[in-house]
Recover the amino acids of this structure.
């Protein structure tokens, strides 16, 4: 088999230098004689590592001083509950923008904790094309406790490129699949959360970036492990955090800084996406149905014109070291997830295979 490229939507591939470093340090980390996963999270050596990881993330994202960075459990789905529990007081409602599978799931979960106003912005046209209602046309509630949205939908391959103007209402973003992939202005958001297993590190860790004035408003029933204020007051160590995942995230942050930061990786991400979309659009053998301005740069679904060839495509792709290309079970087809760790060589290998497969199966 040639070099393996993992196109899984998550858990996703990690940068090879990070994996090599973790392997080197696995049983003997930082002159301790132990693995980092064996050490107390309250030991001086571990806390120094954790502090550096946070500092590096703050540097990469230019996070303002009036924001707390929390290293949490529970994944993105955990935050589907934590957000309303912390931000939605009795008697208020929250706006949930729905443009795909994950934003819909977030809205469904939030309904367990308060009044939710669902705003569906997805439009499916008669020709099969998918587009979105522009953010300036969203019917937002001027008295909402917050507005929640998912900038990038991994299942559907849909991306909202602009940051919506909520006229002062706190904006909450599920950035699980897009964090660190391009530059953003953190100050435009009240809360950003992201499951780690796409652009940050392994599964088991969730990053929450929250503006300090939004702390201290949790509903009485909020479990302590989901209370943002409790986590902030205890440096994310109210209980034992996901220590090894935190360490690996720190290595990813160091790798990204050495690469040139978010601005540098964003240029590569743009080139990767353009290469794959150009290949799809130049063919009558493959299709993508998302309107160009809403196409995801992280998750690119595509379909074969003759879907009876799907199994053959996947089998031959795996033989070439192109792994995890099967589309999500909800939508079918194929999907290439090309997060930060995917090198452009991986996308080129996929494009070469797609072109060869098309020639051999027309």
């Amino acid at each position: 088999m040639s070099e393996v490229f993992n196109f899984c939507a998550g858990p996703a591939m990690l940068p090879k230098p990070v994996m090599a470093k973790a392997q080197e340090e696995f049983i003997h980390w930082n002159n301790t004689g132990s693995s980092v996963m064996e050490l107390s999270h309250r030991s001086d050596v571990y806390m120094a590592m954790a502090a550096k990881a946070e500092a590096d993330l703050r540097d990469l994202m230019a996070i303002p001083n009036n924001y707390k960075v929390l290293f949490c459990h529970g994944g993105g789905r955990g935050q589907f509950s934590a957000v309303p529990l912390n931000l939605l007081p009795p008697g208020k409602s929250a706006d949930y923008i729905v443009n795909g599978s994950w934003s819909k799931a977030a809205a469904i979960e939030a309904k367990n904790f308060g009044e939710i106003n669902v705003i569906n912005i997805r439009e499916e046209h008669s020709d099969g094309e998918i587009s979105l209602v522009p953010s300036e046309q969203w019917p937002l509630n001027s008295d909402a406790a917050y507005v929640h949205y998912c900038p990038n939908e991994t299942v559907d391959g849909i991306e909202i490129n602009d940051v919506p103007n909520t006229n002062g209402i706190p904006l909450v973003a599920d950035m699980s699949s897009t964090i660190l992939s391009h530059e953003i202005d953190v100050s435009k958001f009240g809360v950003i959360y992201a499951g780690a297993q796409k652009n940050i590190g392994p599964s088991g860790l969730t990053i929450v970036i929250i503006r300090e004035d939004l702390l201290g408003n949790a509903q009485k029933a909020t479990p302590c492990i989901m209370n943002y204020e409790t986590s902030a007051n205890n440096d994310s160590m109210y209980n034992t955090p996901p220590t090894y995942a935190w360490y690996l995230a720190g290595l990813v942050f160091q790798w990204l800084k050495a690469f040139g930061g978010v601005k540098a990786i964003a240029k590569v991400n743009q080139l990767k996406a353009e290469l794959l979309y150009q290949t799809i659009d130049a063919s009558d053998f493959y299709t993508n149905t998302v309107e160009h301005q809403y196409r995801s740069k992280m998750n690119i679904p595509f379909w074969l014109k003759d879907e009876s060839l799907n199994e053959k495509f996947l089998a031959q792709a795996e033989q070439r070291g192109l792994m995890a290309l099967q589309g999500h079970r909800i939508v079918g087809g194929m999907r290439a997830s090309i997060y930060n760790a995917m090198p452009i060589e991986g996308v080129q290998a996929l494009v070469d295979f797609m072109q060869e497969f098309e020639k051999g199966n027309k």
